[in-house]
Amino acid sequence: MLLGMRCKLSWRGVREGGAGQAAISLFALPFLTTAALGFVWRANSAPAQGAAAQTTAAIAATRASNTGLTAATPRSAGLNIVVLDPAHGGADYGARGAEGVRESEVVLEFAGQLRRGLESQGFQVVQTRLGNENPSFDDRSAIANAQQGAVFVSLHIASTGLPGTARVYVNSDLPTGPDPTGLIPWDRAQGPFLSLSKKLGDLVQAQLTQRFRGSPDVAQRAAVRQLRTTAAPAIAVELSSVIVENRNDLDRMAPGVAEAVARGVAAFRPTYVVAGTAGAQP
Questions:
Q1: Is residue 122 part of a domain?
Q2: Is residue 206 part of a domain?
Q3: How far apart (Å, rounded) are the C-alpha atoms in residues 4 and 133?
Q4: In which element (H, E) is residue 153 found?
Q5: Which residue has the higher pLDDT, 221 or 183?
Q6: Which end of the chain is more exposed for a tag (fewer CB within 10 A), N or C?
Q7: DSSP secondary-structure letter at 173?
Q8: Residue 38 belongs to some domain of the structure
Q9: Which pLDDT belongs to residue 177?
């Protein structure tokens, strides 16, 4: 469910002069730098000590269990990585249906199938969670922002809507200019990527519409909190809905969703230019 999601801040950005990058205080994991666009990233939020302690072990385990990627791993220019974000987790179940359907559980299972579909297209996949932990919004964004040549796909199940349909959301317009310090604030990280996110969203939505009758033709714009702090092309895919008579109705959508998203991301690959390696974005 995209609306009403809980925000738990736990990252602190550390500005470093000259190199044009910021560091994350918890894991010394560098942010994605975009020197070709003339800006660096800054986290506006102060660290929430309790929240950070709760998620540190889970995020460290997720990073270790992903594909062995680190920010220092050499990669060729272009789109190589898809960061999958199964929404919610832990005590936050997300949307819940009368038949015991929990959004957090369904999207985690969908992520497994989608991961295999993306890998079959030649992508490396990083997940923001692999189990029932609940990383904060900033934890999830920081995992994506640490990768070069990546897109971000957040998975959700709606509490309403026509069952058996799927929608893609991209973030609403954000200011793209730097603040008085010359930096783009953390909570506007998505701003420079909005046009690329819309391209990605439309390609994925076109694939979903072919498979799920009644789905819209193009990606929708919405104020999706998770996308706002992501410094990469980013979309949210939301399926309808947890209010089904049989959980199997949702499970049957998984192969089609996996194929649609994988094909949409593959179609987007030629249009993506990584900032800092090939100049400005299209």
A1: yes
A2: yes
A3: 19
A4: strand 150-157
A5: 221
A6: C
A7: P
A8: yes
A9: 64
Query: What's the CATH code of the domain at 58?
Result: 3.40.630.40
DSSP letter at 219 equals P
Phi, psi of 85 (to 5 degrees): -125, 90
**Structural domain of 161:** 13-271
**Consecutive H or E run containing 137:** helix 137-145
As a whole number of angstroms, the distance between CA 125 and CA 212 comes to: 25
Task: Please tell me the distance from the alpha carbon of residue 198 to that of residue 261, in angstroms, as a whole number.
Answer: 14
Q: What confidence score (pLDDT) does residue 77 get?
A: 63
Rounded to whole angstroms, the Cα distance separating 230 from 221 reads 16
- Counted domains in the chain: 1
- Contacts for 183 with CB less than 8 Å, ≥ 6 apart: 15, 39, 40, 41, 42
Let me know if residue 87 belongs to a domain. yes
The answer to whether the predicted template modeling score (pTM) of the entire model surpasses 0.90 is: no
> 15 or 210, which is more confident?
210
- Locate tokens 């949409």: which residue? 264
- CA dist 151 and 66 (Å) reads 16
